[in-house]
Structure formats: C-alpha cells, structure tokens
Design goal:
By secondary structure, this protein is of the alpha/beta class. It has one domain. It is about 50% helix and about 10% strand. The chain contains 13 helices and 6 strands. The chain has a 6-stranded mixed beta sheet, sandwiched between helices. Strand 1 and strand 2 form a beta hairpin. Helix 1 packs across helix 5, helix 4 crosses helix 8 and helix 5 packs parallel to helix 8. It is globular, with a radius of gyration of 19 Å. The two termini are about 35 Å apart. Keywords: Coiled coil, Signal. InterPro entries: TraB/PrgY/GumN_fam, YbaP-like. This is TraB/GumN family protein.
Length: about 280
Amino acid sequence: MKKILFLVFGLFSIFNQAQPLEKALLWKISGNGLTQPSYLFGTIHATCDATLDAATLKALEETKQLYLEIDMDDPMLQMQMMQGMTMKNGVTISSLVSEEEFVVIDEFLQKNIGMSAKMINTFKPFMLNSMLLPKLLDCEFQSVEMELMKVTKAQNEEVYGLETIGDQLQVFDKIPYQDQVNELLKTAKSDLSKEKEEMKKIMDVYKTKDIEKMLVVMDESDNTISADNKDVLLVNRNRNWIPVIEKVIKSTPTFFGVGAAHLAGEDGVIKLLRKQGYTVEAVK
C-alpha cells in the first residue's frame, strides 16, 4: 500500500517558466534569521536506481528530521488511504464508460495489476493509473523516498509530512472523474506504450538534475490531466507547504524530500521560499 502512495506522488506536473534554475536536486535553505540550514531535495517516485549521492547523505546527517510530502510512518496511513480511494456520490468506472470500454479496462487491469475492474469499480481512476507505474520500468521498482526514510531511520530520526493523506486524496476529487477515466481508457488502449516512452524521458532528464527541463517534458506529456489541472496538482500544494516549511526550519534543521516537479518554476518551492526572504542555493 505504501508503494501506491509513492507512485501517486510521481504524477504531478506544471507549466514551463522563464529564468531557469541551476541543474541541481539538492538545495540549501539559509538566511532570513535561521541559525542552522535546512535542505530541500527533489525526488523521483519510480526509478531503477534510487541511490543517494554523498552530498545528499551529508545533508541528511546534518539535519535532525525528514519531511516528505506526507508522513509515511503514520500507523493509520493505510486505513486512511483506503477510506479515500473511492469516488464520491456512488460514481463508478463502469458508469463513466460504455460496456465495451469497460471490458477493455477490465482486461487491461487484470493483465497489469492482477485485479479485475469489477473489484475496484469505485476506485478513483487516477490512482489506478498510479498503480501502473512499476510496469513502466524495465527494472525492479525503486523509490527515492524509501531510501530517504531508510537513512533517517538508521539515524534514529523522525519522519513527518508537509500535508496529510487526506489532503492528497482530496486532490483527486477536484479533477473530474470523467477526465480521469478517459485517461485510464487511453492508457489501456495503448497498452502502456506511450507511457513507457514518457517515463524513460523523465528518468533520463532526472539523471541530469535539470529540474526545469523535467517540467517541460511533463507538460508535453500525452497525459492531459497534468497540464489541465496544474494548479490543483502542484501550484496550490506548493503554496500550502511554504508556511509549514517556514515554521519547521525556524526550530529544527530539516531535510525536505518532495517530487522534483515541485521545485522549479515561479510557483515552485525554491522561488516561493526566496520570495519569503530565504537564501535557497544549489548544492553541487
């Protein structure tokens, strides 16, 4: 179940912005009265190699706690997730497509996740798409968030979240269910061919640490949900995180790990923190 959460994180995008940032995943937060620095790191939620480099490990050692998008250590997490996975008002996948289209989706899901659409007919389609991410990799699934948690636990430090799982799941209620199921049907009909190509592009760009280019690749995706709902999926969440980050870093040096798509752009976390008076600089 935790794997599904990591996968869901990887499906957000935002439009391209001017004044590109440096090519870096690790950023140091200082200034504005802080006595000790904190760090901001851009993650990728599905990858073939989640190895953390020396600079990132050093930043984890220098900080005293880890903040991810949500608290992955919450013992109530799985229960809360199950409660929020279904569509509201009795909407089902089968009610949004024709009988023929439902058969296509059903056969596709049985083939790729081993579950019939009839069993998960009430699930939000966007979340079903996220469960397919491991199928887009030609390797064993790995997650950078899992690696960050592993190091944090070895250091006997705590893991926290910038938002709750409830906040995350409510995002998918703001995107029309019809749009979500249309995207799922398109994925089923292509049998993941286009999605695999796009996933490879994202991973290749991530390796270069070019967070601005990642936004371009993701915004040009054949998946129109990201481009059409960027405020809900990314921008609004970035803005909501800033007061949380500010409160935390004033009291405790902290390592923040969020999807790399959240970092770049005028409404990305880096520039939003700079607008609040903090120095946010790339760690090479």
